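User: Let's play a game. I give you a shape written as tokens, and you guess the letters that built it. Ready? Here's round one.
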């Protein structure tokens, strides 16, 4: 039987499925240290990860390893150049999380615009004595302008929801999407700068790459309207969190909604001191149904890539399909 490592706690019934095909080493505890992760991978043929960094050192310490299945659509934790150099396949879990993640983007954006977390903290602290005409005034969602940076599958799901709120949609992306998608979403392609100047609510939905590190920093925040909100459901590192905390403190923008952070789960402490930010612990895909779908898709990818099950040799979501069928080096 081939051996696999499941690096994180996941649904026990998914482990049972994997055990039908493999000898499973399951870390059902705390996140493994980098050394322990590499040590436990050393004799494995495959692995199921969720954000665990996999680079050249890990791959060369695991000479049998042929596939790493990430339980996430984002795979910036994989060094794909190292995967390609070793002929190791990476897989991810696209599509199954589009709608849940888009829902959560809206939840954060609306909570930021309408000051839901901030007012709840105030209420819990016992400050609510009377109604006030100017209590927690926010900014409207309906009829406003949505700015989506990153118009992939999740960005499109997010933009589609704007119709019900009668919003204008601006977007910026590496490349312009097909005209029929623009028409369906009623979305207009603009430069990042124009989007930041015009949007009332900016939402980030782009993958993290070295090139878009700090896509939003002090200069970009300065372009935004003082009444605008910024929501990040993409990845930590796309926003300069220190610059954002300062912009929120100085009220250069009205509010922010964040699900992801530089260096998470550790947050820039300045973010914890500003009231006008809604903070979530990286849970945009966290519904029971979606996390189950992600776990099962990651398992299916691993089973197929290791030549087992009904789709043996044909995993659904290869990131680097060019290595399929090549000998491990
Ligand atoms: C994951 C995510 O839960 O899919 C992604 O890219 O950010 C989340 O849905 C998280 O990355 C853990 O793997």
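Assistant: Ready! My guess for every position:
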């Amino acid at each position: 039987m081939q051996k696999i490592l499941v690096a994180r706690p996941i649904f026990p019934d998914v482990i049972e499925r994997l055990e039908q095909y493999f000898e499973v080493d399951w870390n059902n505890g705390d996140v493994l240290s980098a050394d322990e992760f590499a040590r436990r991978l050393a004799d494995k043929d495959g692995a199921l990860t969720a954000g665990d960094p996999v680079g050249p050192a890990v791959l060369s310490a695991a000479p049998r390893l042929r596939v790493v299945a990430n339980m996430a659509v984002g795979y910036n934790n994989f060094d794909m150049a190292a995967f390609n150099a070793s002929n190791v396949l990476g897989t991810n879990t696209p599509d199954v999380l589009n709608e849940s993640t888009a829902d959560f983007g809206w939840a954060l954006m609306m909570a930021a615009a309408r000051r839901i977390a901030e007012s709840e903290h105030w209420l819990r602290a016992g400050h609510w004595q009377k109604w006030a005409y100017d209590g927690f005034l926010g900014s409207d969602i309906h009829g406003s302008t949505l700015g989506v940076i990153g118009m992939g599958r999740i960005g499109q799901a997010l933009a589609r929801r704007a119709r019900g709120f009668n919003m204008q949609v601006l977007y910026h992306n590496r490349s312009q999407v097909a005209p029929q998608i623009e028409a369906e979403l009623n979305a207009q392609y603009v430069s990042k700068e124009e989007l930041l100047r015009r949007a009332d609510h900016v939402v980030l939905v782009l993958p993290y790459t070295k090139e878009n590190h700090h896509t939003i920093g002090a200069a970009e925040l300065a372009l935004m309207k003082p009444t605008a909100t910024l929501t990040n459901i993409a990845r930590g590192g796309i926003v300069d969190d220190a610059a954002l905390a300062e912009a929120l403190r100085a009220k250069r923008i009205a509010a922010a909604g964040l699900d992801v952070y530089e260096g998470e789960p550790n947050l820039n402490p300045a973010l914890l001191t500003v009231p006008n930010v809604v903070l979530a612990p990286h849970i945009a895909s966290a519904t029971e149904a979606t996390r189950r779908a992600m776990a099962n898709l990651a398992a299916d990818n691993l089973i197929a890539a290791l030549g087992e099950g009904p789709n043996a040799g044909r995993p659904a979501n290869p990131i680097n399909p060019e290595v399929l069928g090549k000998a491990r080096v």
